[in-house]
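Here is one chain, start to finish.
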Amino acid sequence: MKRLLAALALIVLGSFTACKKSAPTLGLLVWEGYADPSFVADFEKRCQCKVSASYMGSSDELVAKLRGGSASNYDIISPSSDVATMIATTGLAAPLDLSKIPAYKEVMPQLTSLPLVKSNGNVYGVPFQWGPNPLLYDTTAFPKPPDSWSILWDPKLKGKVSLWDDLSSVYMAAQVLGFDKPDPHTLYNLTDDQLAKVKAKLIELKPNVRKLWSTGGELTNLFENHEVQIAMGWPLMTNQLRKRGFPIGETIPKENTTGWIDHLMITAASEHKDLAYDFLQYVIEAKTQKQVIAVTGYLPVNPGVAQYLTDEEKRNLHLDDLDNYQKRIYFWENVPRRDRYNQIWNEVKAAQ
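Its structure:
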């Protein structure tokens, strides 16, 4: 009997020990590059946890997953500035206790002062990365940087263009039509008449579009396989292609461009909020931001990162002329009629 009791005790003790040793898993639903092992591994080691990341291809995909009942699968999300306000005001994200994120005070005030993730006196998101949607091009096909988005409609580029399968393509066409003059905010508040003209303009572009892309890797492959020569993209693809030795160029055309501020939010359904706070603090620290931008090529939110960069790296990130660079980017805002915009974009894709 004693032997039986001793055996049972060992089993119970073993089960408890195994449970105690099991590492918590932090679930992320974020943009590509935002959970790269180069900086996540140190966090996992430091906090004795696992980070499980899923990646999204558009802001609408993120919203659909959160509304579709899978919010409980994720502790942290990285909405862009065009849906961050909606997420902050509809109970999908938890209000933040900023005292648990000391590095928040180090973030650029140009970003934290914006109302994008604030509601009823609470802050719901921490700026993480920001940047433009630039025009990317194969420098062997364009020895000089294209100076206008309108080049995408050049008949010589039939079958050589790629667009992001996202509402940013709607914003871009609206810029080509001049709807952002004199007020860039108009891009996110287009009338039905303006949207009809945007739709017609994008349908005109379809013969030139070889393929729409949804993830950064897709566009990188399209360039590497010489399937396209020019596209709207992200600095992430520029960074990836340069590392692979591809002759990629990146520019902001004369019409300027739209861009985004990606925030990290803790979901209301998160069961690991303390660990999520630790992650937010970790990734906006200056040292970690240096590792993040090495992967993404995006702009850091913590200006303290400059102490870890060479002069060339600062120039490549436009940190030597930050104010003027930001003026060329019309940051995404909440789109009150987002469903209508999506309808227009879907009609463009369906048009023959």
